[in-house]
């Protein structure tokens, strides 16, 4: 028999349970047809960095499956049944997609396939969303108890990498869609081997210090695995298994970050509307600024020209690397929502356009956490002070200087407050576009209004 393996966010061969299922369904004399479908509803709204990275991952995957990867464009509910008929497949295998769109799409594909089963094996998460619940079966709403139960739940052992898969070559493939040039954005190397390399290097060189350096954007102390995890070039279970014998605080802290990823996917699974709406119902009434002034401030934020060095450095890292350090993501998101009073959804959309790791669950819930609208929200009265955050987490100004060349010669003492430097703000760098103390007051007032309703 022939089995179709429909790749989505699982662009690897190692630790891939759906691949093992497809091979088994094909049997000793059958063949596996690997396919990727460019779905216009996902491809169209994806930012360019994600499109380019995905194409690069597919090029890598294509080489690993002996050139057998079949690429097609169109609605999967039409493309897959056509392909099933063309190759005479008896089953279609996938890793489950638990996001709101993916669930609907897969249900439509399942209906369109009729008697040919869509077999879901595994998911992009260490524990499939929906599986970790309180003892009464209801979902967790707060991270810490979720993380405890998640650890106790445990995860399956990594699946072995199959040595020989009978890939079916010779099935017609289409050219992938084109991606316009990326104007100097430096993307990470794509694919499964690049992901393993990144993990091996992080584990050997930076994991030990992770707990203490993960908050210092200037020190590059984190793994930079997010884009690989997003596209499934590596599975989190592989990483967790590799950490099994490590009992250090840093390994624990890294496991905790993977738990956040699973937690946000779990929240999205239970509350799919959280992709668009605040989880905290009271926050529907929150007043945000709109109109030309808000647009102008948004544009200054987006270009990295707010006059607050750590904010500008973060926004420029986003444009330069399609990535931002986690601490800085919190600072720039807080600045947009609490200093510029712009709706978090506008910022979240901008991130999704520019991040190579842009992910609906982690991004929207990360923004909701900052905006104080999420399940596990940062308390609304906690307003990040961009100057203090800069001084605390980038004390020597290394990160700011890397991304804001105008501030290269400002001494560390003033690098987060260049307006206080004896020589004044360097030419070409803006003065702060708003006064943080004043905007903090305005933000608190607005939060208090909605919370008292
Ligand atoms: P590491 O510190 O090495 O962490 C390892 C892995 O754990 C990450 O690759 C990621 O998969 C996961 N992880 C770490 N922190 C978080 C977190 N807070 N929430 C969920 N997962 C986490 N992450 C995304 O993958 N995609 C996004 O679109 C995204 N948007 C964000 C938006 C905002 C406003 C905020 C505050 C955070 C966002 N994050 C997002 C989470 C986090 O910033 C990134 O995962 C992290 O910076 C990636 O760098 P790293 O791989 O070096 O992380």
Automatic annotation (TrEMBL):
Give, as one word, the top-level EC class.
Answer: lyase
Keyword Amino-acid biosynthesis listed: no
- Give the region (Disordered) as residue ranges: 160-189
Bound how, and how many: what does the cofactor note say? Answer: Binds 1 FAD per subunit.
Catalytic activity field? cyclobutadipyrimidine (in DNA) = 2 pyrimidine residues (in DNA)
Q: Which InterPro entries match?
A: Crypto/Photolyase_FAD-like_sf (IPR036134), Crypto/Photolyase_N_sf (IPR036155), Cryptochr/Photolyase_FAD-bd (IPR005101), Cryptochrome/DNA_photolyase_1 (IPR002081), DNA_photolyase_1_CS_C (IPR018394), DNA_photolyase_N (IPR006050), Rossmann-like_a/b/a_fold (IPR014729)
Swiss-Prot/TrEMBL GO biological process terms: photoreactive repair; response to light stimulus
Name the SUPFAM superfamilies for this protein: Cryptochrome/photolyase FAD-binding domain, Cryptochrome/photolyase, N-terminal domain
Q: GO molecular function terms here? A: deoxyribodipyrimidine photo-lyase activity; DNA binding; FAD binding
What's in the keyword line of the UniProt record? Chromophore, FAD, Flavoprotein, Lyase
Record-annotated Photolyase/cryptochrome alpha/beta domain positions: 1-129
Q: Which cofactor does it need?
A: FAD; (6R)-5,10-methylene-5,6,7,8-tetrahydrofolate
* UniProt-listed Enzyme Commission number(s): 4.1.99.3
Specify which residues bind FAD according to the UniProt entry for this protein: 210, 222-226, 254, 257-264, 357-359
Task: Please report which protein family the annotation says this sequence is part of.
Answer: Belongs to the DNA photolyase family.
Write down what this protein is called.
Deoxyribodipyrimidine photo-lyase
Record the organism. Answer: Geodermatophilus obscurus (strain ATCC 25078 / DSM 43160 / JCM 3152 / CCUG 61914 / KCC A-0152 / KCTC 9177 / NBRC 13315 / NRRL B-3577 / G-20)
